[in-house]
Amino acid sequence: MELRLDPDLQTFRTEVRAFIDSVLPADMKERQRRKVANNAAVPDLLEWMRILNAHGRSVPHWPVEFGGCGWTPMQLFIFNEELYKADAPEFDWGGTHMLGPVLYTYGSDYLKDRFLPMIREGATMWAQGFSEPGSGSDLASLRTSAELVGDKYIVNGQKIWTSGAAHADWGFFLVRTDKTVKPQRGISFLIIKMDTPGITVRQIPQINGEAHLCEVFLDNVEVPADQLIGEPGMGWTYAKFLLEHERTTSSFIYWSKRELARAKDIALGESVGGRRVADDPAFRARFAKAEADLLALEWSVLRVLAHEELDEPEAAAASVLKIRGSELQQEITMLQVDAMGAKSLRFFDAAPVPPPAPTDVWPDYAPGRTTVALINRAATIYGGSKQIQKNILARLAFGL
Amino acid sequence: MDFAKSDIQAMLLDSADRLLSENADVEYWRHQRSSALGFDEARWAQFAELGWLALPVPEAAGGLDGTMEDIALLNIALGKALATEPYVSTVVLADHVFKQAADEARALELLGEIAGGTLRVALAHQENGAHPLDVEVTGTQARPSGDGYILSGAKIMALDAPGAGQLIVSARIEGEEGIGLFLVPADASGLSARSYALIDGTRASDIVLADVKLPSAALLIGGNRGSAVLREAIDRASIALMAQAVGAMEAANKICGAYVQERKQFGAAIGSFQAIQHIMADNFVAAHQARSMLYHALANADQDEARRSAALSAARLVVGEAGQTVSRNGIQVHGGYGLTDEYAIGHYFRRLMCIEKQYGDLIQHGERFGNSIFG
């Protein structure tokens, strides 16, 4: 064990920082920095993918043969960290980090040839159709059915919490293709075009004024059978692979580092009774704990990336990352909100870009903080709720 | 950066496993607690034979020239076994001071004695009411006198002092900046010690220095260098203690994991209840984060003082709170048995509480880390 950082990585960091600085358009960066909404606007997101792709860096984590950069885990970590620090638009995670790895691992050559370039080039937005109204934490109970008729699947059912479905061109869905076997064995992984007749999308108004989450109704939707990934009945295995493949993504480490820096700016910018919020001992102690906890999370991510040998299965560490990552996202957004006191209660509409021009009273850090903090209660719910993660941990770490 | 253990580290852990695991139980701990020094001097001699006492010693002095990572790994093993030997005081803290001492020949001699197991050393620095992280403030005075110094003052809670032959005493030298670090024999004339046990069975002393006469050679390091070296030494002691805390937490978790599978209520193992499972999950998360922060402190151990102390205090914050979580939850899942001296978890609870408060507590480290962020 030797824990000092490799000095070569500093050179790499300098290189990617300069690269991002040279290709990220200033207006896009500014829109991203000042956005009120939790999610980036679709046009910027896709345009940024196209820019990165032009330099061969839109899917750096993929195998080289599909367009990846062949970087080490530490190099990928640094690249991601620098993207966030620079206020670049996020990846379309559904395509680049979820579907992509499933496709190149299990997909037919036809599916790989057809969809991997679309994802890599930023040609499409992707929606993930997993949860259903009756199947949240108990995902394996899902009921949306796909019946094979000739060379098509006929899909009927309902999905919910489908992020960005209203703007998605394509979706990847978990559907039930066999009702006669154990629930997990009857699930398949199907790619569906979102403008196929029979699909209705309803945007769900959220507590933060956005409507990013959607319901998707599927009514006799006809899907070519060759859009089923891998083998029928293996969808559950692929979905688990997908969730485990990007173990460190759920930590949101890069996002949280950037947002903690913003929380610091707010605490230095806001004053109460002539004293900076940053100088309030109670606030400072809470901030210090959050920053220390974030450092711990960062090292936990590095340990997973390096596949550190542990007594417990590696998946246990992945649950740690999800639990702590989601808790810290919430704590950091609440630090931002609490640093603004009652001023944080002003409602800012997420839609207008750019938001209202900054003033002395309402600096440009103000719009958006509460919008994000409100919807961030989702962090401990999606992708396996905190309670589900604790069930998993108790089993993996202690055999309970 | 490499998380894998080197061959030397693997050997070190292997030897630790063999020596310590046979005596990592309540019976052994209770027996040691009632002994004169709180630990077994025969086992200390075995530490020497295995080279553990020579770990940070330079090769030139017959040592192993080990890294801070090596020391941390060994201390994880010591923490798992709740070893009460004065390893941190003597091998981590005193070695570091000696390695910086002005008189190199004398330093090598002292390091050699420590490596051989014949010399144990304790730090007598803390004074009543003084801030443990503000080493510059000391009421102890060193008056130059003839060809030496006369020390007077009062120290409290000098950890491991009852079993030490020599003390490192901090004092302000009259007419000089900073503080001086003096090597004082434990039986020096004018030095009186009142010794007691801590709740984890280790020992400490309150020490009064009443005109203790010392030769000039007793001054190991003087002036501003003295303060800097003392801060470094205390930070290293903190890292070793955190490693022990990590070992203790991981061991406590294993003990609790086994207990909740064995203990039955309502006709079922209590570990089958989700309320207990989630407590165990919380404990796993806490210990995992603690180990991560030990790594953070290690990675920054040789950085400049500002970065080093910020990283260390951040780590102490996470490790200290994790220790509370693991040990308090550990007692909770044991029910009434957790409160008895006959179950291991109560021993881990007391050890973790001691580590949390030594060389700066949660409030002090939180404050120091907060100041590093906001200035």
From TrEMBL, chain A:
<protein>
    <submittedName>
        <fullName>Acyl-CoA dehydrogenase</fullName>
        <ecNumber>1.3.8.8</ecNumber>
    </submittedName>
</protein>
<keyword id="KW-0274">FAD</keyword>
<feature type="domain" description="Acyl-CoA oxidase/dehydrogenase middle">
    <location>
        <begin position="127"/>
        <end position="221"/>
    </location>
</feature>
<dbReference type="InterPro" id="IPR006091">
    <property type="entry name" value="Acyl-CoA_Oxase/DH_mid-dom"/>
</dbReference>
<dbReference type="GO" id="GO:0004466">
    <property type="term" value="F:long-chain fatty acyl-CoA dehydrogenase activity"/>
</dbReference>
<keyword id="KW-0285">Flavoprotein</keyword>
<keyword id="KW-0560">Oxidoreductase</keyword>
<comment type="similarity">
    <text>Belongs to the acyl-CoA dehydrogenase family.</text>
</comment>
<dbReference type="GO" id="GO:0050660">
    <property type="term" value="F:flavin adenine dinucleotide binding"/>
</dbReference>
<dbReference type="InterPro" id="IPR009100">
    <property type="entry name" value="AcylCoA_DH/oxidase_NM_dom_sf"/>
</dbReference>
<dbReference type="InterPro" id="IPR037069">
    <property type="entry name" value="AcylCoA_DH/ox_N_sf"/>
</dbReference>
<dbReference type="Pfam" id="PF00441">
    <property type="entry name" value="Acyl-CoA_dh_1"/>
</dbReference>
<dbReference type="GO" id="GO:0005886">
    <property type="term" value="C:plasma membrane"/>
</dbReference>
<feature type="domain" description="Acyl-CoA dehydrogenase/oxidase C-terminal">
    <location>
        <begin position="233"/>
        <end position="395"/>
    </location>
</feature>
<dbReference type="InterPro" id="IPR013786">
    <property type="entry name" value="AcylCoA_DH/ox_N"/>
</dbReference>
<dbReference type="InterPro" id="IPR036250">
    <property type="entry name" value="AcylCo_DH-like_C"/>
</dbReference>
<dbReference type="InterPro" id="IPR046373">
    <property type="entry name" value="Acyl-CoA_Oxase/DH_mid-dom_sf"/>
</dbReference>
<dbReference type="InterPro" id="IPR052161">
    <property type="entry name" value="Mycobact_Acyl-CoA_DH"/>
</dbReference>
<feature type="domain" description="Acyl-CoA dehydrogenase/oxidase N-terminal">
    <location>
        <begin position="7"/>
        <end position="122"/>
    </location>
</feature>
<dbReference type="Pfam" id="PF02771">
    <property type="entry name" value="Acyl-CoA_dh_N"/>
</dbReference>
<dbReference type="InterPro" id="IPR009075">
    <property type="entry name" value="AcylCo_DH/oxidase_C"/>
</dbReference>
<dbReference type="Pfam" id="PF02770">
    <property type="entry name" value="Acyl-CoA_dh_M"/>
</dbReference>
Automatic annotation (TrEMBL), chain B:
<keyword id="KW-0274">FAD</keyword>
<feature type="domain" description="Acyl-CoA dehydrogenase/oxidase N-terminal">
    <location>
        <begin position="8"/>
        <end position="107"/>
    </location>
</feature>
<dbReference type="InterPro" id="IPR009075">
    <property type="entry name" value="AcylCo_DH/oxidase_C"/>
</dbReference>
<dbReference type="InterPro" id="IPR037069">
    <property type="entry name" value="AcylCoA_DH/ox_N_sf"/>
</dbReference>
<dbReference type="InterPro" id="IPR013786">
    <property type="entry name" value="AcylCoA_DH/ox_N"/>
</dbReference>
<dbReference type="InterPro" id="IPR036250">
    <property type="entry name" value="AcylCo_DH-like_C"/>
</dbReference>
<keyword id="KW-0560">Oxidoreductase</keyword>
<keyword id="KW-0285">Flavoprotein</keyword>
<dbReference type="InterPro" id="IPR009100">
    <property type="entry name" value="AcylCoA_DH/oxidase_NM_dom_sf"/>
</dbReference>
<dbReference type="InterPro" id="IPR046373">
    <property type="entry name" value="Acyl-CoA_Oxase/DH_mid-dom_sf"/>
</dbReference>
<feature type="domain" description="Acyl-CoA dehydrogenase/oxidase C-terminal">
    <location>
        <begin position="224"/>
        <end position="354"/>
    </location>
</feature>
<dbReference type="GO" id="GO:0016937">
    <property type="term" value="F:short-chain fatty acyl-CoA dehydrogenase activity"/>
</dbReference>
<comment type="similarity">
    <text>Belongs to the acyl-CoA dehydrogenase family.</text>
</comment>
<dbReference type="Pfam" id="PF00441">
    <property type="entry name" value="Acyl-CoA_dh_1"/>
</dbReference>
<protein>
    <submittedName>
        <fullName>Acyl-CoA dehydrogenase</fullName>
        <ecNumber>1.3.8.1</ecNumber>
    </submittedName>
</protein>
<dbReference type="GO" id="GO:0050660">
    <property type="term" value="F:flavin adenine dinucleotide binding"/>
</dbReference>
<dbReference type="Pfam" id="PF02771">
    <property type="entry name" value="Acyl-CoA_dh_N"/>
</dbReference>
